[in-house]
Amino acid sequence: MATTSSDLDTRLRQHGTTLRRQLERLYGATHDGDALWSRIEAVLRDRMAERPPVMQALDVARIADRDWFVAPDMIGYSTYVDRFAGTVSGLTQKVEYLDTLGVRYLHLLALLKARTGDSDGGFAVADYLSIEPTLGTMADVEALCGSLRASRISLCVDLALNHTADDHVWALKAKAGDPHYRDYYIVLDEAEAAARETVLPQVFPTTAPGNFTHVPEMGGEVWTTFYPFQWDLNWANPEVMLAMVDTMLRLANHGFEAFRLDSTAFLWKQAGTDCRNLPQSHFIVRALRAALDIVAPATLLKAEAIVPTAFVPPYFGADEGEGFEPECHLVYNNSLMVAGWVALAEQSAALPAAIVDVSGGLPHGANWLTYARCHDDIGWGAVLGDLRGIDSDPEARLTDAAHFIEGAGDSWARGVPFQSDGSVLHGTNGTLASLAGLEAATDDVSRETAFRRIALLNTLAVASGGVATIYMGDEVGMLNDYAYRDDPDRAHEGRWLHRPQMDWSALDTPAAMRIAGDLARLRAARVAGAGAGAPTLLATDASVPALLGIRCGTDRVYLNFSDRAVPLSDTGTDRLSGSAAAATLAPWQAVWLMGDRA
Ligand code: OTU
Questions:
Q1: 555 classed as catalytic
Q2: Choosing from 158, 304, 406, 555, which is the catalytic residue?
Q3: What Rg, from alpha-carbon coordinates, does the chain have?
Q4: pTM for the full model?
Q5: Which domains does the chain have, with CATH numbers?
Q6: What's the CA-to-centroid distance between 334 and ligand 1, angstroms?
Q7: Which of 203, 373, 498 to mutate to test the pocket of ligand 1 (most atoms within 8 A of CB)?
Q8: DSSP character for 210?
Q9: Over the chain (598 residues), what is each successive 10-residue block's mean pLDDT?
Q10: Are the C-beta atoms of 487 and 494 separated by less than 8 Å?
C-alpha cells in the first residue's frame, strides 16, 4: 500500500506540531518561526514526493507495527565495507553470510564520501549524498538495500551531525569567504576559544589536543571537537538544520532504514558548559525524528551518545510538559558494554548488575543497541558515575580494570591504551578475542577459557534484549591487527588495532566455528524464549558476587564472571546446552534457563 498525499497531511498534523515546537525552542528567539516552518515544510513535501513506493509501503507497515525492531531475532552487524567485502557490490555477495548469522540490521561504517587523506575512519564526511568512490555508487547502494531488504536486513548508515570534513563543499565555500557558509561553522577569536577550552573535555587528547583549530582563511579559531579536519557544525544556525533534514530524508529515500547519529551528545555549544548533553542537542534530534515520522517513518534513529548512564534516558525522548516527545528508537548501551569488561577484569558482576538494573523501563517503540565491542575504543570514563554509588574511588577502580584489560601482570587480555600512555584513564583498544584471552592462549585449556569469556560477553549483549550487534570479525575470533603501525596513514590512530581486514579463510577454523556456534545458540535461545526489549535484573545470592542474573523474556540467564565454579540455586533446562542446568556454574560459564522459575 502506498502513501497518499492525505497520509502526508495526516502525519504532518500528527508530528508537525512536535517538529515546530523544537524549531521554536531552538530558533524562536533569533529567527522568524513562520518563515522557517514554511521552508522546512517545503523540504518535507519535496522529499515525500520523491519517496519510492517500496519505501512508502514499508512506512505504512511499520506505522502499524511500531515495535517491529524490538524483537528476539534482532541481531545486528557492524562493519567497514572495504575491510569486509572490498566494495558495495562485493558486499551484496555477502548478504547470504549475514543472513546465516541471523543478522537483521547492518551498520556500514565509512560508506559516505570521506575527506581526502585522513578521514577519522570515514567520520570526516566530504559529501553526505555520495558514496565513497572506491566503494561504489549510490546505485550500488540502492541495489544492496534491495537485496538486504529481501533478507529482512535493515541498512544503517552513519549520519555525522556534529561536524563535516574540512573539504566538504560547505567548508570550502566558507574558507573562500562566503558568509552564508561561514555561518555553518563556529569561529571564535583566540581569547574566547582559550576561555571555552578551560571547561571542555578532550576526546583525542594525544592525537588531536584541544577543541579549536586556527584556520587563517576563517579568520580565527574553528571549533573542532575531534580531529582538526572535522569542523563542528553551528546548529544555532537554522540553515544547518534545514540542510541536515534535507540530507537525511534524501538518504532515507535511497533506501537506508536507520541512521546512526554520530556524536549525538555534542551538537549544541553554550559558553560556560562542557557542551555535552545540552537540552538543545535533544531538541535537534527530536526535530529530526519528527521529520522522519512525517516523511519516512520506516526509518530508525540510533543515538551514539557515549555518556554517563544518568544522561542516557533523554536520548529515547522526554516529556517537557507537552506530552512525550520521542527522540531515538535505539541508543547504544555503552555503559553495559564497558561494565562487561570491568566484570571480566574484576571477576565481579557488581557493575553490570547496576547497569542492567537501570536499563529497564524503555518507552514503547524503543530499544537498546547492545554489544561487546565496536569500531571505537572501550572508553572507561563514561561509567565513572555508575561506580560512584558502588565504590569510594571509582577512578582507581576503573584504572585497575583498564590495566588488566591492557595485559598488566599475569592478565590474559591483550588490550592497548588509547589516547594515553596507560598512566591516565582514557580508553582501551583491541578485538573481542584478543581482549578476552584468545591471543594470549597457548594451550587448549586457555583457549577454552577464552571462548567462554567471549561467549559470556556475547551472552550479556544478547540477554540484555537489545539489537545485539556483532562487530565484524568478532564472530570468527579475529585477533588484534598490529599491522596498522607500519602504515603511515594509520599508525597514529590506535583504533585500527581492532579494525582488521575480514579473514574469510578463518570461517571454518575451530575458533570461528566455536564462536559462531555459541552466537547461534544464544540467538536461538533468545528467539525461543521470546526475549526482546529492556532487561531486568534477577536477584542472585549476595555471597556469590561473580554471578549476574538477567530476565530475558520468560527466561532466566545467569553469567559467572569468575575463573571459579560458583553455586547456582535456580534450576531448569539450559537452552544453550539442551540439558538440565547443574547446581554449579563452571568458570566463565553462562546458562539460559527456559521459562519462568518452577
Ligand atoms: C564517534 O565516537 C565515532 O564512533 C568515532 O569513530 C569518531 O572518531 C568520532 O565520533 C568522531 O566522529 O565521542 O560520542 O573512540 O568513542 O570519538 C562520540 C572515541 C564520540 C569515540 C568517540 C565517539
A1: no
A2: 304
A3: 24
A4: 0.97
A5: 1-161+242-332 (3.20.20.80), 175-232 (3.90.400.10), 536-593 (2.60.40.1180)
A6: 12
A7: 203
A8: S
A9: 73 97 97 97 97 97 96 98 98 97 98 97 98 98 97 98 98 98 98 97 95 98 98 98 98 98 97 97 98 98 95 96 97 98 98 96 95 98 90 95 98 98 95 98 98 98 97 98 97 98 96 97 97 94 97 96 97 97 97 83
A10: no
